Amino acid sequence: MSNIRDLYALEILDSRGRPTIKTTCTLASGISASASVPSGRSTGAAEALELRDGNPLRYQGKGCLKAVGHVNTEILNCLKNRDFSSQQELDGALIALDGTDNKRNLGANAILSVSISFARAVAKEQGQPLYRAFSQLINRKVERFPRLTINLFSGGRHAGKQIPIQDVLIVPSSPESIDHSLVMMNNIYQAAAEIGLKTYGMRLLTADEGGLAPPFPNAEAMLEAAVTAISNAGYRPGEDAHLALDVAASHFYRDGSYYLDETPISSSRMIERLQRWCADYPIVSIEDGLYEDDWDNWPLLQEALGSRILILGDDLLCTNPSRIDKAIAAGACNALLLKVNQIGTLTEAARACRMARDAGWLVTISVRSGETEDDWAADLAVGWSGDQFKNGSVTQSERLAKYNRLLEIENQKPMPIVSWPN
I need a labelling partner for 109 at 20 to 30 A (CA). Which of 9, 160, 218, 241 fits? Predict the structure, then answer.
């Protein structure tokens, strides 16, 4: 039983210089812990509402003072001096207090900051690592590390839309450890930087999640450069390292067509393009290959490629149990991209994770484009036995904080890492 003595939130800045929230939870025992929440740029329409102030004189309307105020007033008044026997009970109180289906009253950012700071404080009070506390929420043993999917090149909303698709990621295929994965990725990243300099005269300028963003003429050029970077770094494409794509197709879908260039194509043609890429390049995972509400065609994409690669739902699913249930019934994909702030509490995200597992899906734990140096997502990826962990590139402190936390856990608790294929 844990009793909340105090909650205190403040507005801080994320990795893009935009406001977000940090909340400190203090228990009656005197133990306190803080948590900072991320913010997405490429967001699904069904995500829980991230409350912003709308004041154009502060951060172009992106301020979070309203959400901060909700933590320091309504939420504190509701939770103060109450005993909570579990994370589920705490999150249930938050959900009931908000009273909406998408957290629009209090804000998913306010609610999540309380949910995670409470979890961290209770773990600290119990003298256990955060990943262990997280594992108890889904009743799984901590026995392995996730496979890393690491951002190499970026386009789409992460990089000024110079090409439509959002990210090409490197997947170390049979790594010995987290350390080995990061060594491999560092070598590939440096090789990619050389390609960018020699081919496009571009120095090391990076996108939101640390990926390189040369002015590629098309998606195929970006994929070719990724394969070349793997080879130039001394690794074997399709053996030592594979590729993963975050297509983010919703962002180039208009009026029933997809615009990879100036020529619109149908859903069936988009699926054919994805099939061709998978035939030509060592791709093992495609995220949001179709528009988030193209429900009729997601099952066709799954039928075409799902036996060979992961068909990941991000904007399609939004870590939302009702959309996951619909996707399972439709046979729309075979993997969940799990972002806790899409739904707003740890308990709801844990339910989404269990639903995906029960359906035989794989689960990728993901951070957001607007991150902080808080490292709780690394503990979540370990505690929830993520098949993959999507954290951005091997640059920028908000990304490295999570990788460094994985290295710390690995030093304390050596475990095998998920290899490809499972």
Answer: 160
